[in-house]
Amino acid sequence: MSRSCTNCGKSAVRANHVSHSNIKVPRRQKPNLQLLTIKGERVKVCSTCRRTMAKQMA
Questions:
Q1: Run of H or E including 47
Q2: Domain coordinates in residue numbering, the chain
Q3: Which of 16, 28, 34, 46 is most buried (CB neighbours < 10 A)?
Q4: In this model, does residue 32 exceed pLDDT 80?
Q5: Mean pLDDT computed over 27-54
């Protein structure tokens, strides 16, 4: 499975780690993916989509 949300397609992005002396080092920001079981199928969903799904089901 890839590191992307199956619902919205959100994936890792490039960002910089900035030190106190303003030195920039590239890094990756990964989405907050969580495993959910929906209708017997396990899917990786980001936390934002999970909250939205919970609101729609309630």
A1: helix 47-57
A2: 13-53
A3: 46
A4: yes
A5: 94
pLDDT at 3 over 70: yes
Task: For residue 58, name the pLDDT band (cuts at 50, 70, 90).
Answer: confident
d(CA 12, CA 26): 13
* Contact between residue 6 and residue 45 where contact means Cβ atoms under 8 Å apart: yes
Q: 31-37: long-range contacts at Cβ-Cβ below 8 A with a sequence spacing of 24 or more? A: 31/3, 31/4, 31/5, 33/3, 33/4, 33/5
**CA dihedral angle for residue 54, residue 56, residue 57, residue 58, rounded to 10 degrees:** 80
Question: Cα separation of 45 and 42, whole Å?
Answer: 9
Copy the structure tokens of residue 24. 């920039």
Indicate the pTM of the whole model. 0.77
